[in-house]
């Protein structure tokens, strides 16, 4: 049965939470608490837990449960929580939902099937089955650079009609399709969430409901202010804030597109994470960390340490 009692609107600023590790590969729960507390106290709306930025595809089920339970305890109901179930098949996603149900997430997140290429009708059936099973609303997640199965706009618009599908997080970078979707009539309950940091401002300016940001783990304040300005329809200020976010994005560009390692190193420099990746050899080296540090200093963020 679908639970709509006390449902929190899928909107606003939703950081894709990083996961600090010890050098041993164990989760650093002390720093996780520090990072979650920073984000929640900064005025965010929700948290995206065990997603791509949180290295969710490399976590054991036990680790995923530990992380979600910890985040829920730290956030104390102040923000909504999205539990990402990054599994390649319908049945595997449903099994993961079963494990998470006892923690009462506000939303479940699933990607398209992956590893094997599949047609749009299979993607459609995949999400419909998950939505039908889940006791909480489903967020469909379009990230073809990881799944190699892109959701076409026609598929998204059809899924938007499903009662238990709350919205889409679109990390495809296809802003033409995203814009067309925002401008298409869909049920009011369906939310358009942008997942590419370079497109946050433009997305708000065309009427998107919210953003999921990985980069915002480093410095979330501009994103929160951007959302507030967007609600006031202060589009020029939104553009100015996007310019600052683009400057922060240099930590990724200067390290050759090492997205998650660069983000984690940036947060580590500010004392809320470690640099260590779950896949240890992906951890950023000293030379790249110095590049990240120069950007952090240039933006005056070390004062936030």
Provide a quick synopsis of the model.
With 305 residues, the chain is of the alpha/beta class. It has helices at 29-41, 61-75, 90-100, 120-133, 144-147, 153-159, 175-182, 200-205, 221-231, 235-248, 250-253, 259-269, 286-298, and strands spanning 12-15, 46-49, 80-85, 107-111, 138-142, 165-170, 191-194, 210-213.
Mean pLDDT rating: 96
- What is the quaternary state of this protein? single chain
Give the overall form.
globular
CATH superfamily: Aldolase class I
What strand order characterises the main sheet?
1-8-7-6-5-4-3-2
Helix percent band: 40-55%
Structural class: alpha/beta
Distance between the termini: 45 Å
Architecture overview:
- This protein has 305 residues and is of the alpha/beta class.
- The protein has one domain: Aldolase class I (TIM Barrel).
- The protein is built from 13 helices and 8 strands.
- The protein has an 8-stranded parallel sheet.
- Helix 4 packs parallel to helix 6.
- The longest helix is centred in the N-terminal third of the chain and has 15 residues.
- The protein is globular.
- The chain starts with 11 loop residues before the first strand and ends in a 7-residue tail after the last helix.
